Amino acid sequence: MIKRLLVANRGEIALRVIRACREMDIQPVAVYSDADVGARHVRAADIAIRIGPAAAPDSYLNIDAVIDAARRSGADAIHPGYGFLSENAAFARACASAAITFVGPPADAMERMGSKIAARALMDRAGVPVVPGRTPADQSDASVAMAADAVGFPVLVKASAGGGGKGMRVALDARSLADAVPAARREAQAAFGDGTLYIERLVQKPRHVEMQVFADAHGSVVHLFERECSVQRRHQKIVEESPSTALTVPLRKRLGEAAIAAARSAGYQNAGTLEFLVEGCGDDARFYFLEMNTRLQVEHPVTEAITGVDLVRAQLLVAMGGRLPWQQQDLTQRGHAIECRVYAEDPSSGFLPQAGQLHLYREPSAPGIRIDSGVEEGARVPVQYDPMLAKVIASGESRDAARKRAIAALRSFPILGVRTNVRFLMNVLEHPAFAAGDVHTGFIDEHINNLLEARATDDVVSAVAAFARSAQPAPSARTAEHGNDPWSTISRWGR
Questions:
Q1: CATH, domain 4-103, list 3.40.50.20, 3.40.50.300, 3.40.50.720, 3.40.50.970
Q2: pLDDT digit string, tens, across residues 294-309
Q3: In the chain, fewer beta carbons within 10 Å around the N or the C end?
């Protein structure tokens, strides 16, 4: 049994795990850096321990500091969340050495799937299709160039370690490859401490579809259906949904079987995600293994919304040695869900991350809307961490119903103090191609000019209007006189 659990993370995922602990009568422990003193997750936990300065390598990525915090607090388990140490096999082993339960997969499975090169080889042996590619034993620029010639342009130059689009470059020909290889190597080395590269054929306009899997220590492995993650900027997802408009029933079945086979071949346990590229459409579409995320995903609420399960609770049950709370036949897809990631970033400046104080921050509330966030009005968005502020998850009986609910929620989400991508997300959801389900991994690049259009007002005016809408009083003589015009209540801003 887990009696006291340390959450080795921050923000909305830390709050999500703390909530699950409360529901399971587990005492939650938070850790924090100097940038997060007084943060929501720190206040929500029973115990909070400082682990270092604001810089992530000195705090949230410091294995010794996190393990020491667990010992000092008496925690008998650690949940890594996502990002930071969540896919670090050395951290999982450090937990085991300290007799602390790691809420995640075994370190060996993490290592097998954490290296893209090793994972590709394992999937090939397991009969799971992989994108044609090569990994040169000699990692010189010249050998990487020879591998690209053998695979055939266009290619992706990809880092073996890590994820999130870091250490990844597109090379359309030998000339662009000469710049892509050193750039990808430098970024991979800086982000992951490993500059190993491999070459992969560039699949033109693919869909990015991932399968949620879950396994316990008793031999049970299930999938919880797919998530469509094709809408990306800089190879990072910003809109996810389920079900995918790309999958037919037979194709979904094949993908699920491949995902389960992949998890079994890796000796996997706990929650994980198999990511695939889907080429073509219909029952005859081809799919290729891309990578495995050996952790909970940012977009896990989409799966929870369409299946009705609690993935974090299941993580804790499996970590305690329990069996999966459901079998494959118990799991069904119901309705549709769309998640939008709200970032402090400037889409018009290449999605440049933003930092600063949130002078105005009011989350929308409506039927079919779930908000996962770790920030609040008055808080500072630090420069040291990922700038995601919140996730807006909209559910509905159909895709269009979920899409319209998401748009309405974003329209009623006032944020001032930093630039955000709220308007950009609305433009994505309102774009005719997205509304028709016609998306692919190059969707944003293809439609960037239209997506950057303000369409109505700039960020500040939009935020003020959203705040005014959310602050409207109940119907009265005044609203009867002015109707639902938000500007009629603008004088209430700042009260």
A1: 3.40.50.20
A2: 999 999 999 999 999 9
A3: C
